[in-house]
Specification:
The protein has eleven helices and 14 strands. The chain is an alpha/beta fold and about 375 residues long. The strands form four sheets. An eight-stranded mixed beta sheet has the order 7-4-1-8-11-12-13-14, with helices on both faces. Strands 2-3 form a two-stranded antiparallel sheet. A two-stranded antiparallel ribbon has the order 5-6. It is globular. The structure holds ligand PAZ. The site of ligand PAZ has 13 residues, from helix 3 and strand 11. This is DNA/pantothenate metabolism flavoprotein C-terminal domain-containing protein.
């Protein structure tokens, strides 16, 4: 099947999210305003996509991503003069709020206190930091530089990504797509998805059958939405004891994005691996397969310490953060590259280095294509 056929099949069989049209209208207005002002726009995708197991979803498959990379990158893009569309997993980390919303030392209420006059104020020890971050946030909001659009499922994400990328096409080479979301590779297609909560016991199953019988349906022969087993072969242990999830591959739509949705924009994607021996090879493979402009490789364990830029016609470029009070030795770097995490926390945010390096490549992309 051609890439276009795969796209058509996927989008015609997987329903769009409820707010797609409203989100697209917001994105269009945002892009038009910034294009008119000659400002660059970046689409940052962030966080994990869920894979629902039921249409009325109680259970879903998820992944580890909290959206740190995307939310942090969005802040640095704003600092670098970009307008940012932040397409993110609902309730994951967001720019600026991230400094207080997901702190390991407590929730955001822990940063506040009731003053003597009864009003609420920031705790004195965080007041300066909060003032500075709040002021950056207010600038982004009042100058309309940050548009946040949420998604939840893999289907929502792909619909939103296509709609917004197509709008980004009007920016030509000045549009930048920075795809940092952790996107599921597998999903349950709608025709094999249970309508209701999957039952774990015979009792639940019998109750569903009784309800179906009362409604004049026979579930034993009917392969309708009430049939929750999405696996084709006959199970060896009773249904009441097992849940077999048979997932289809999510179509690889990056080629469609690069060729069709935003053909003149700069497209950079991330490649996540856990095995250090395959990271660069997989990043290069991705670049060759999708013919885009940049793959940023990172290892799960060391992603806050080091990344590698893989781009056409250039040497691999490793970016690494400084250590607190120490220099990197050759031996340290070797261990890091093998996925060994230093004991201390990173001395700074690696996005501080990633974003200027991406911007540099974007400058070159604009020069070559405008
Ligand atoms: O959200 P986070 O900061 O915890 O993780 C970021 C990341 C590892 C998901 C991102 O850097 C990334 O590699 N995204 C692409 C993942 C993929 O290969 O699909």
């Amino acid at each position: 099947m051609s890439a276009q056929d795969q796209e058509d099949v996927y989008f015609s069989t997987n329903p769009p999210p409820r707010h797609l049209e409203a989100h697209a209208a917001q994105a269009r207005a945002f892009i038009d305003a910034h294009a008119a002002a000659g400002r660059r726009v970046v689409l940052v995708t962030s966080g994990g996509t869920t894979v629902p197991l039921e249409k009325q979803t109680v259970r879903f498959i998820d992944n580890f991503s909290a959206g740190t990379r995307g939310a942090t990158s969005a802040e640095y893009f704003l600092e670098a003069g970009y307008a940012v569309i932040f397409l993110h997993r609902e309730f994951s980390l967001t720019p600026y709020a991230r400094h207080f919303s997901h702190a390991t030392t407590g929730g955001f209420l822990d940063f506040l206190e009731v003053g003597q006059g009864g009003g609420v104020s920031a705790r004195p020890d965080v007041s300066a930091k909060m003032t500075e971050i709040l002021s950056r946030y207010h600038t982004a909001r009042t100058e309309n530089l940050l548009l946040s659009i949420p998604f939840v499922t893999i289907g929502d994400y792909l619909h939103e990504l296509r709609a917004i990328s197509r709008l980004m096409a009007s920016l030509g080479p000045r549009g930048l797509l920075y795809l940092a979301a952790a996107v599921s590779d597998f999903f349950v297609p709608p025709e094999r998805m249970a309508e209701h909560k999957i039952q774990s016991t015979d009792l639940g199953r019998r109750a569903q059958e009784a309800a179906a019988a009362a409604a004049g349906q026979d579930l034993s022969t009917d392969n309708s939405e009430e049939e929750f087993d999405n696996f084709d072969s006959s199970p060896r242990v009773p249904r009441s004891k097992r849940l077999i999830i048979d997932l289809d591959p999510v179509p690889k739509l990056l080629l469609n994005l690069v060729d069709g949705w935003a053909p003149r924009g700069m497209v950079s994607s991330f490649k996540l691996e856990t095995d250090p021996t395959i990271l660069v090879t997989k990043a290069r493979y991705s670049l060759e397969r999708y013919q885009h402009h940049l793959v940023i490789g990172n290892l799960l364990a060391t992603r806050k310490w080091e990344v590698v830029f893989v781009s056409p016609g250039r040497e691999d470029n490793w970016l690494r953060v400084k250590r607190k009070g120490k220099e990197w030795t050759e031996e340290d770097v070797k261990r890091l590259r093998q996925g060994e995490v230093p004991k201390e926390e990173p001395g700074e945010e690696i996005e501080r280095f990633i974003i200027p390096a991406v911007k540099d490549l974007h400058d070159q992309h604009i020069k070559a294509n405008e």
